[in-house]
Amino acid sequence: xGSNNADQSMQEFHSHxxxxxxxxxxxxxxxxxxDSNGSVTGRCILNEHYQGYPGYVxxxxxxxxxxxxxxxxxxxxxxxxxxxxxxxxxxxxxxVGTEIxxxxxxxxxxxxxxxxxxxxxxxxxxxxxxxxxFMVRKDAI
Length: 141
Fold this sequence. Notes:
Layout: H1 5-13, E1 31-34, E2 40-44, H2 59-76, E3 82-90, E4 100-110, E5 113-122, E6 125-135
Antiparallel strand pairs: 1-2, 2-4, 3-6, 4-5, 5-6
């Protein structure tokens, strides 16, 4: 995540996350950068510990990467919200040992519900994409 105060406090709040937590030794070690248009981009390389079929990242891990990118995109806006729906479309298998790039952006929001989109790329090829809905808890307003 970025370097401003809101991003820093969100990073600390989320420090033990399985996908991006810096204090979680089992983390996927995703690192997100805030893009100028309000979206985020993350990168990682996963080894065979995260595979399903030999040489391919397990599908649930791919879904986790997409979900984490959308969550971190909300963090960019100072929003803490929980996933209520995640619809993943798998296009091609994600390879282990090859850099994964994930991008996420907010598409819309109404009241406490935000809709986001995210895509996973390898070598500029879209491997998977997702649409997610996230809800801010009532007590967080």
